Amino acid sequence: MAKYSRSSRSIKETIDELTEEKSAEFHEKWVLGYGDSSVADMAVVAVAVENVSILASKVLEDNRIASYQEKSTRYVQFDSSSYFRPTAVMASKHADLYVQTADMLFATYEKVLAGMIEHYRKSYPKPDELTDKMYEAKLKARALDVARYLLPAGTLTNFGMIMSARALRHAISKMKGSTLAEVREIGNEVEAAAVNPAYNPHREKIQTILEGLVEKAPDEAAALNESLKLQIKGAPTLVKHTEPKPYFEGIQGIGKRYAEELGVAMPKGKDQPRADYVDEHASPEDELVATIIYSGSRAPFREILAKVTALDDAKKREIITAVQSRRGERDWLTRHFEVPGGFIADLLIDYGAFRDLQRHRVLTQINQPLGIDHGYEMPRDLEDAGLKPLFDKAMKDAAEAVEAIGKEHPDDATYLIPLGFRKRTLFKMNLRELHHFIELRSKSGSHFSYRAVVYDLYEQVKKAHPLLVEHLRAVKMDFKADFYKR
Length: 486
Prior knowledge:
The protein has a domain at 246-377 and 419-482: Gyrase A, domain 2 (2-Layer Sandwich). The chain is 49% helix and 9% strand. The protein has helices at residues 11-16, 20-33, 54-60, 87-90, 95-123, 132-147, 165-176, 181-195, 203-216, 218-232, 246-262, 284-294, 301-309, 313-324, 351-357, 388-406, 431-442, 448-464, 479-482; strands at residues 44-53, 67-70, 156-164, 275-277, 343-350, 364-367, 422-429.
């Protein structure tokens, strides 16, 4: 496909003369020699990533030009023994505390799941049109929506990802520069998977046939073997230049430094809005600087923007230069530079909800670090089911363990944070993306956590710009009416 840009020949003629040597020669010349990265877009790589933490999966899935499909926390019950054990913590005095806390969270997860199933069974009798199997499946799905708040971020998951070799190079660079040892290791494994022959379930059968042909027709068998190798080969000439990039690694640290210098602090208390539509008329320069600082802070975007607006041009230039001076020859600009950002939503949501909303990769997403500082969400119906004390104790004990382990292992302690704890993410979008975001995530069948958030966002935008969202099909949640619509 890439040769269309360098040849007048038809695709069939190109394929007929294709060899590994010619392919490598072409890529070495145009991709590596001339830096023609668009050629690498024509190689699509499918990678299955298994037994990695949810925390790591969010890092790997933070790439816009790709497709992902991950094990669902809403339909699949997770195994209580399947959680990541960071090497550094397991070799420290905190090993027992780490394991005990993870085991406690999973034990509570199973108790809450069972308790919520029984609560929903009493509250929602089986409709005549549902079979027993369908009814039980709906009860469990709704109960999993509540129980998932207890899953630690270190819970092991599986997902598939499909992306071009060009996007994969960028993704691997980010992985190799992660502060998490697990993510760095996954980056190396993904690179190895991408450049080696792909798994082929028919290969073993074909190999047996080839071995039978070797004695009868050795030349034909060798030619056939070479042809088969060409079909299943990875992308070794394309997935290169995957070294960690200081440009991407350092931006959060720069944001943190200036957040501390400007005195940007996280608000006290738990009554912060979960959705804040920031309709300030900021200049692109101010938006850029505020976005850089936001990524290294735990403060609301609105507060940061107010601080930045008051700075003089020299200080703003200093902050932008601190980021851009780290940019290498092959580095793309980061998402912080996607300004003006259009509609800006600062969302303070539980990590489980973020896990779902991250799928809107077309949007500009600027993440703040996951932590316990913002507290946790209380899932609906838990108190009515008599499970709130059990839930609160588990979350409190987990937070104490995170705090204790975090004094020596701040990054690895994050694996113990349950999905119910809240984090900030800035979502920027144009009007078309806003419609899609709200319409999809407010409709019945969506998780109650983010349904409430996006509908709140809709009402805030509607108040400011009623004409722009007059035809937006937002759906206000009616949990009881929607109970069986999933």
